[in-house]
Each structure stands twice: as C-alpha cells, then as structure tokens.
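anyone else get weird line breaks when pasting these?? whatever heres mine. first is seq + tokens for prot A
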Amino acid sequence: MELDAGHITPDKSSMPPAISILLLAHNKAAYTRRCLASLFLSSLRPSQVVLVDNGSTDETPRVLDEFQARATGEDIAVVRQRFDRNVGAIVGRNRGMELLTGRYWIFMDNDIVVRTRSWLERLQAVLDSDPGIGVVGPKLVYALPPHDIQCAGCAVTKGGRVIFRGRGRPREDPAYGTAQDCQTLISAVWMLPAEVARRVGPLDERFSPVQFEDIDYCYRIRDAGLRCRFEPGVEMYHFENVTTGRTGTLNYPYLTVKNGLKFKQKWAHRFTAEDGPPDDTWSWAAIPTVKLEDVPEKLETLP
C-alpha cells in the first residue's frame, strides 16, 4: 500500500509525557467527539494525545480542533497527523506510533467512551506490578443498560478462531470478574509500555487495511516472552465496529475471513499447542447494533 505522506502539526511540550494516547479517526465525527470528551472524565489525565485523521471528509477536523483547544488549556500535549486519504487503520496507527513519546502507550478507538474514571492509573498499576506483562486491556461493555460485556479479553480455539470472552453476558458475571492472563486482546483500548512496543515493532502491515493486526500483535508480544493481561477492574464503553466495521468502503466480512486465514497461517504453531478452547465452543451472539443516538448523553461513570 502506497503511503500518503500526510501533514503533521505538532504541539510542542518541554516535558516528556508519562502516558500517551493514540486515537485514529476516519469520519464518524459524533463518535469521536463523545470519545474525546470522555477523556476529561479521567481522574489521571494523559500527558499526550496523538490524533490521526485518516482522510476524514466530515466535520472530524473541527472536532479535533475543539479537543485540541481544550486539551492544550489543561496541559495535555496534542499532536495532529492528517492523511489526505484513508490509508487504513494499520498504516495510520503505525505512523501515529512514531509520534508517541510517553512511557506508556494507549491504543484507543474512536468508539470508546470512558466508564471507569481511574482507568489510566489502574492499567498502569497492572503493568508496574509485573514486568512480565506486556499489554493490559479492560473489560469492554455495551453503552446501553444493563451494560452487558462486549469483550473480556480473547481466547483462541485450537483451530485459530478468536472468541470474545463473555460477549453478551452480564457485566457482573463472576466468570469474567477476575484479573487473568489471556491469549490475546483487542486494541479497541489497551495499554502497553513504550519499551515493549519498541521491542516488538510496528503493526504488521500484511494485515492492511485492518483486521487481526491486534490479535497478531498480542501473539508477537507473547512470542517475546511477555503476557497479555485482562483487567476487569477497569470498564470502558464500546460501541463495537464503528471505527472499522461501519466504514462503507471496507468489505468487513471479507477482510475478517482473509486476514483470519493469514493469522492462522502465521501462528498455527502456537495456538494449536496452547490450552485454548475447542472449536465447537466458538459462538458469536447476535447482539443488536447500539448507535450513538440511542445512548443517553450522560453515561454512568465509576470511580
């Protein structure tokens, strides 16, 4: 894929940030506005936010302007990168990763909304508690009450099928209430140390434009001798498939199958030897799509 050179507008800061957030947006401005506004609910503010506009043609640039004005006033360094066309989520994130300067890096989709206000310090505490943890992810829940689970970490079957643990189950289900290692996580939101990301390298652009690059990245982290950790003490709202699945120019089902095969070919030597679930346990609950306009303007937040 030919890379658009893009336009970079940095916001200078003399202090190296502790936590950097990377957010990628392609249109869907209303979701991006809700996501970015929720960052100000955080009890610990990120020190840097890198905003990658992947060729948006709606009012996304204005939304990013609004966020930058408020963030700068609250001592959050903002770096903007814009591509004139959609270069794909993987290329966009890889270019955005080059701009991150924090000691901890957050990947965040623009269809995420903060639910646990102390999410940053809690995820950081997990990483600090054990140098063997390479990446940590929260419990993702749906934005409509009763806020059932969307993803509580992922399992991979013996045949290489990815299971979203707990999908559609009550958020209080005790089976998904314990912090634990898991085979993989999705990158809708996760945190990893910058040194781990630099060691593992960029996302694999063979999965471009999107799909399975995050599953692959977790296996690369584990191949480096580190672990993936699910932390249920942090909950985040996720609208599911807004960032990529509702992009009209992408054939999402086709990409899922195509890149799923690439993942299986690349990592069969690992997941076939793991203690993953059997293939007949795989399921995908038919859960109605939750749209932004169906969700209350003020969502419940937790400490």
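and prot B, same format (seq, then tokens)
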Amino acid sequence: MWNVPNILTSVRIILVPLFVIFFYIDSVPARWITLFIFCFAAATDWLDGFLARKMQIESPFGAFLDPVADKLMVAITLILLVEREASVWLAIPAMIIISREITVSALREWMAEVGSRAVVEVSNIGKAKTVCQMLAIFLLLLASPSIFGLSKSFGYFFIWVAALLTLWSMLLYLRAAWPYLTTQDNEG
C-alpha cells in the first residue's frame, strides 16, 4: 500500500492545508511558496501515475487516492482564486469545472457499482482539460501583482478553454454511460 506513487499522492493531500495558509499570507515569498506547492502537486500528479505504471504497482488504494488528491487541490485552488479575483469571468468556469468533477466522480462510482467502470475511463479530452486547467491555475497564481503583475488574460483564456473541455468530456462520459443509466435493471 505504501509505495512511492501512493506516498507522492498522500503528500499532495498533506500539502493542501499548507497551500491555503500560504495563499492567505500577503508577501512575495508566500506567493512563491504557493506557486511552488501548486507546481509540485501538478508534477507529482503526473509522476505518481507514471511510476505506478512503470513499476507495475498500480493499486486500488492508489486508484482511489489519486483522483481525490487531484480534485482537492484543483477545487480548493479555484475557490481561493474566485474569492481573490471576485470576478464572474472566473467564477463561472470554476463552477463548471467543480460541478463536472463532482458529476463525473459520482458517475464513475455508480458505473463501478454496476460493473461497467471502463465505460467512463479517462479520455484524451479529459487529459487535455487537465493540462489547460493546470496551466490556467498556474497563470492565475503567477499573475498576482506581488509577483510579476502579469496580465491575467492568458489565465482567463485557459480557464475558459478548460471549462469548455470540461463540459465536452462530461457530455462524452454521460453519453457513454447513458445506456446504463436508462435501463430498468439499474433502478435503485
């Protein structure tokens, strides 16, 4: 259970409270630490999956924990950014992204219960969504006036692209699962 990929995933979860603390500290060093924590989490998100496959140590615990760690960091970061920016142009895509994550997680759980989890496996669109989402969050964290004063335009652009890809991937997952959702045998 405690192999390198699962330890990396656990570290991401442990870093979430530190991320929040440093996000609220109003200093340039704290903003850099916040950015570093997010980048470390994004990098280890990729690394833990790569190592689990390469070392052939994929586990049910890791399969459960990895998406939890990802969704915690992304959802909490989006909520913090929406609070800081107080902009409808960020609130709407954040709402779409968080809502999709909840919906697709519930769908995957339900599909696993009916023995058809593979129907809603991660797609290439989902992977593209994740890349755009991470890039957008990185740019929005970096755009803090206390770091570089960069234009937030790129961050806003990529968060909207991520939101559109989010909707698209959710619709594909729902379409794939639709036959299972509408059959009489699956009613509970």
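btw re prot B: Residues 122 and 173 are 9 Å apart (CA to CA). The helical segments are 4-24, 28-54, 60-85, 88-113, 124-142, 153-181.
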